[in-house]
């Protein structure tokens, strides 16, 4: 039978065959209830589930190759970032995949809407009873013990043989996300320090001025209006303009306290302005992008509760929303994440591909590496080192945390290690190999020696001063480090654009090829899982990455 004949035969069989006569193939499954969850019994058959169906992109390998081609300094195509149409051509599913999946849904009286500009994601709402029927599944109610939240999930689902090859994953099914997202930990409150241009003041209290001095960041205002930084906002974290004004009056007296940000919203998002609604994370991210990336336009992208990606809390919606725009931000910083094991491998891969597509458009995608040390994105009980997500995705830049100045030292909570989903990408194989050689047999058997290593870089992340709800306080976390490093990239992009050049885009090939432009951190460790964790060493390490920024050296490496 020809491919075309098989295609139409498949459509016909789906249209006429009932579930009982179809051969089902297990698509994804779990052997047991994930750690931290408990089963409460069968899910209410009449309750609704918002499905996201991921169709296989036609050329993921081509997208990844194109991303590296435009992001590797030695390439003749370096900086020639792709258009939205060019990226979508890689991401788009085949016509056959779309037709087969829609025919399968139609045979059950269902129809899905396209929910991404490339057409590789479909969405629809079904009842639990219908989900059990079409997926040969058994949805149950599971409770996340620590938060008390409950979710309808299944430990296994299957697809008809004619359909299985045309679907990468369906969510929500076997992914059990931890609803306790990363956010900064309040440090012991200390009085706000006198603003000083002395880098040594970062040893005890971190402010924009000491960061500028420590990392040689210019204080002169950016000039290019086409350049921007997007700050990702989730879980009803609201950035307060009044807090920003107070922050600038205290810590950036050299610029107007009226400097502000623009809000973009999706999924019914908003940015409520009242002291009682002040979000520590949102205020931190906005204050340290505006407060360090002087003059670079900042967009706070607020995701509401109407997210269509299940308990992904808008993560998928966010990247699809921004990728659908004709002009993408030059930098995006996100201070939220989870543990790699909280997400099925198929779903994690699909999200990672979305970040690769975003990078190919010319966006530097930065994520806080997490605050669980070697226990992952968040602290947990473990016997082997855990990986964080999305920090382990090789197509974004993960940022760890340091503290102190003489020398800068790894924060004990700074999440770092090796992915169990992705292998080490070419751009970091030499750096990882050097670390593993120096590591020797220490912690042998506790981590994946062939995995993608993270973080890639680091920045100050302890006792970082913010204003939230009208009060000045210190916060800790890799959540602090990501917007600080993002600000450095935002200012470099401003200078590149002013000189007629492309923005940096996906950073990692450039970072690893120019490791000497960063301040190597060789002190500190990130213990966890009842073991010593990793130790910061000369060169790259899975605690502080390649090190912290030196703006002057990075500017030179960027050709400025």
From TrEMBL:
MF (Gene Ontology): metal ion binding; serine-type endopeptidase activity; tripeptidyl-peptidase activity
Signal peptide: 1-17
Domain Peptidase S53, residue spans: 205-560
GO CC field: extracellular region
Main localization, broad class: secreted
Cofactor: Ca(2+)
Reaction catalysis annotation: Release of an N-terminal tripeptide from a polypeptide
PROSITE patterns reported in the protein's UniProt record: SEDOLISIN (PS51695)
The keyword Acetylation belongs to this UniProt entry's keyword annotation: no
Domain of life: Eukaryota
Cofactor remark from the record: Binds 1 Ca(2+) ion per subunit.
Residues reported in the UniProt entry to bind Ca(2+): 520-521, 539, 541
UniProt-listed Enzyme Commission number(s): 3.4.14.10
Single Gene Ontology BP annotation: proteolysis
Keywords: Calcium, Glycoprotein, Hydrolase, Metal-binding, Protease, Secreted, Serine protease, Signal, Virulence, Zymogen
InterPro entries the UniProt entry points to: Peptidase_S8/S53_dom (IPR000209), Peptidase_S8/S53_dom_sf (IPR036852), S53_propep (IPR015366), Sedolisin_dom (IPR030400), Tripeptidyl-peptidase_I (IPR050819)
Active site (record annotation): 281 (charge relay system), 285 (charge relay system), 479 (charge relay system)
Localization annotation: Secreted, Extracellular space
Keyword Signal: yes
Free-text function comment from the UniProt entry: Secreted tripeptidyl-peptidase which degrades proteins at acidic pHs and is involved in virulence.
Protein's UniProt name: tripeptidyl-peptidase II
Origin species: Mycena maculata
């Amino acid at each position: 039978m020809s491919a075309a004949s098989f295609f139409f035969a498949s459509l016909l069989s789906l249209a006429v065959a009932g579930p009982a006569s179809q051969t089902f193939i297990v698509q994804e499954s779990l052997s047991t209830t994930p750690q931290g969850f408990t089963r409460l019994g069968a899910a209410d058959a009449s309750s609704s589930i918002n499905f996201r169906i991921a169709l296989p992109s036609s050329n993921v390998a081509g997208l990844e190759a194109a991303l590296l081609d435009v992001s590797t300094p030695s390439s003749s195509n370096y900086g020639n970032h792709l258009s939205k149409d060019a990226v979508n051509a890689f991401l788009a599913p085949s016509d056959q995949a779309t037709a087969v999946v829609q025919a399968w849904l139609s045979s059950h009286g269902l129809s899905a809407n396209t929910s991404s500009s490339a057409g590789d994601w479909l969405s629809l709402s079904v009842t639990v009873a219908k989900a059990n029927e079409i997926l040969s599944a058994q949805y149950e109610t599971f409770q996340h013990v620590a938060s008390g939240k409950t979710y309808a999930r299944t430990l296994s689902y299957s697809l008809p043989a004619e359909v299985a090859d045309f679907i990468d994953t369906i969510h929500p099914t076997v992914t059990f996300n931890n609803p306790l997202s990363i956010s900064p930990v309040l440090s012991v409150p200390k009085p706000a320090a006198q603003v000083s241009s002395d880098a040594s003041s970062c040893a005890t209290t971190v402010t924009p001025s000491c960061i500028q001095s420590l990392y040689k960041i210019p204080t002169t205002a950016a000039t290019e209006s086409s350049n921007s930084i997007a700050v990702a906002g989730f879980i009803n974290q609201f950035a307060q303009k009044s807090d920003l004004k107070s922050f600038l009056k205290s810590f950036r007296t050299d610029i107007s306290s009226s400097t502000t940000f623009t809000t973009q919203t999706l999924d019914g998002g908003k940015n409520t302005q009242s002291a009682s609604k002040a979000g520590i994370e949102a205020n931190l991210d906005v204050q340290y992008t505006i407060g360090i990336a002087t003059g670079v336009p900042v967009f706070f992208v607020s995701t509401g509760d109407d997210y269509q990606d299940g308990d992904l809390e808008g993560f998928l919606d966010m990247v699809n929303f921004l990728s659908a725009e004709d002009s993408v931000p030059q930098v995006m910083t996100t201070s939220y994440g989870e543990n790699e094991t909280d997400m099925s491998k198929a779903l994690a891969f699909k999200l990672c591909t979305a970040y690769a597509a975003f990078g190919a458009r010319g966006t530097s995608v930065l994520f806080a590496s997490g605050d669980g040390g070697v226990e992952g994105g968040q602290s947990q009980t473990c016997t082997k080192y855990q990986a964080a997500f999305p920090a382990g995705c090789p197509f974004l830049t993960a940022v760890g945390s340091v503290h102190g100045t003489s020398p800068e030292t790894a924060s004990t909570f700074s999440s770092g290690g090796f992915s169990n989903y992705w292998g080490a990408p070419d751009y970091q194989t030499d750096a990882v190999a050097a670390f593993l050689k120096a590591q020797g047999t220490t912690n042998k058997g506790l981590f994946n020696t062939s995995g993608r290593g993270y973080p890639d870089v680091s920045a100050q992340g302890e006792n970082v001063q913010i204003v939230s709800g009208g009060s000045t306080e210190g916060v800790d976390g890799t959540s602090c480090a990501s917007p600080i490093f993002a600000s450095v990239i935002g200012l470099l992009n401003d200078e590149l654009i002013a000189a007629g050049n492309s923005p940096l885009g996906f950073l990692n090939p450039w970072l690893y090829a120019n490791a000497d432009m960063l301040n190597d951190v060789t002190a500190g460790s990130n213990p966890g899982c009842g073991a010593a964790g990793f130790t910061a060493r000369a060169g790259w390490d899975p605690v502080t990455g390649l090190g912290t920024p030196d703006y002057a050296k990075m500017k030179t490496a960027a050709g400025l």
